[in-house]
Prior knowledge:
One of its GO terms (biological process) is 3,4-dihydroxybenzoate catabolic process. The longest helix has 37 residues. The N terminus is likely disordered. The strands form 2 sheets. The protein has a two-stranded antiparallel sheet. The protein has a two-stranded antiparallel ribbon with strand order 3-4. The protein is elongated and about 100 Å long. It is mostly helical. It contains 16 helices and 4 strands. Among the domains are: 247 residues, Up-down Bundle (Fumarase C, Chain A, domain 2), CATH 1.20.200; 44 residues, no CATH class.
Amino acid sequence: MTAPSGDTGLLAPGWAGSAAAAATSDEAYLRALLDAEAALTRAQAATGLAPAEAATAVTEAADAGAFDVGSLAGRARAGGNPVIPLVADLTKAVGEAYGPYVHRGATSQDIMDTATMLVAARTLDPVLADLGRTEQALSRLAAEHRDTAMPGRTLTQHAVPTTFGLKAAGWRSLVLDARDRMRAVRESLPAQLGGAAGTLAAFGAYGASDPAGLPEAYARELGLRAPDLPWHTLRTPIGDLAGCLAFTAGALGKVAADVLTLSRTEIAEVVEGSGGGSSAMPHKANPVRSTLIASAARRAPQLAATLYGAMAAEDERPAGAWHAEWEPLRDLLRLVGGAARDAAELARGLRVRPEAMREHLDLTHGSIVSERLSAELAPVLGRARAKELLTRLASEEQPLAQAPELADADLDPTHYTGSAGTLTDRALERR
């Protein structure tokens, strides 16, 4: 029997098979760790701290396929992180001549944090692409249904008419907000380099005339931002990641929550393009994409809370706070990556049913426009009497058109959508 793997996503259909799953796998983390180590030697070669041959040797040896992830995981227990056994294996692979240049001057957290930033960057890029696809699909829906009237609902009940275009424009606005936050975080992801206690002292000991310039060369090798300071216990990058990921999950969760409500059998104002089946009920077409997004939105805040809690990290390098970040951050990247993939599929396939929306506008026999009627009757009957009349008619479930006082009133709910069309147009101007 082969050893079980906890990295397949068997219980995580929300992210299994996604780009985020590949970008955050154990193998992907190993590749990022090796990329960080190789870049460090190249940066030292570029600044005169190592021979060019050492940079070439370390880069060639840093091939993820040549290392045993399972062995590294098992040996990581001894020192509390996977960098320590990896450095030993990489040094051996490089060979005696240039092995001493592996990891020289760095600390384990330098490599682990830098690898985490690489993994985050490699995950956020496809997430941003999926958010772009979602935005485009929602833009089309909003424009197409700019004037498609439907019941607005507040506290689960019919309120006043709105339009599906305005609802879709609102969804799109949230997606754009998430995109903007994520872009800013993606562009700010920094390399980490500080040495044992964040002073870069070891690099000076190895001959660097200006150790403070080394992080910039290191970041350049990796395509990350150069840090202003070593951030071993200054966890702004992790806090920013937690925030943008949790926000994105919530933004997509709002879309999913609305679709789940509107696609109920008894409402059926929208339908997922390709619903999922049931193991027991052949007639069902479940809103699976929305379900998986909603699941991610419920888990993301707690994962972000763990990352925020880890910001209270003591001293120059912490015991436990840094370690507590690894798993929840990976889970958060995966959840949001899967949710973004599902959101793009959901938005592109969503089917809108204007006929159901029109039918539901008439369920309250005209009461859905009672706000307008109240305003129109107030000058004639007085505000209190107008409200009393409309409240009584609504409680009796009598069609308002039959009330003598409303004989000449415009009861068509499609005529009372306010500035929904203008607001939709304004929202769609945002790029």
